[in-house]
Amino acid sequence: MKDMLSSSSSRSVSDVVVAWYNEPGVERWVSALAFAFSERPAGERYRIFVFHKGSTAEDAKQRLFDVLGTKCSDVDVFFEHLDNVGREADTWLHYTVARLRAGDMPVNRVAFLQGDPWDHFGTPHGGRERNLDVFSSKLVALLAPTAHPMASNPEPLFCNLMSESRVMRRGLSHPQRLDLERVWVEAFGCECKVDSYVFAAGAQYLVDAVRLSQEKPLSWWTSLHHKLRADEINAWEIERFAFIFGDGV
After folding, report:
1. What mean pLDDT is reported for the chain?
2. Model pTM score
3. How far apart, in whole angstroms, are the C-alpha atoms of residue 162 and residue 70?
């Protein structure tokens, strides 16, 4: 287990990235997942990155490592406290930039999850049932080298897809008014190509890590992250462009 983000000595097969604010019970499901990973064949490698944005980081880290104990010592678990800005979008971009910069992006898949991955469970997933064994088994099956091909890239995880019309969004009231067409031009350097934006509630996705590392250069990701941190683009805008973590434009 690691206290902060650092590169691993070898490339892992798949990563799980957790955006944790103050949601209760994160240590329990992360521990269950780490234990499930530890029982996989020796040739498979997994890492779990926990990014905490709450006000009790040291207490949260201690609780997490206490529950993990030594039973999952062969699974790399990283903990890092981040400033509470940018919602999940900031966490996903922070992870992506750091891994590309370190040169150790995983070779298989990345799962992006909230601290409460059940928060946006839809009917197809059985409501808000928090069965840790079922959850861990399903996630392992999605991340393993033997996993079935992804239906889309990115693929929503434990949540429903949502769609917003480009026309509707122009006049829609929002905590921070969105200007998606401007963001599209700034991010991709071209006029908007879609009539609606499809994204996952909760910004939870399964992503092809190879595509994530090859579609766009580190400089592009770094620039996007800087604009988010500088409040030139807000988190709700980035989260509606989920495909930037997948097949791109």
Report:
1. 79
2. 0.85
3. 40
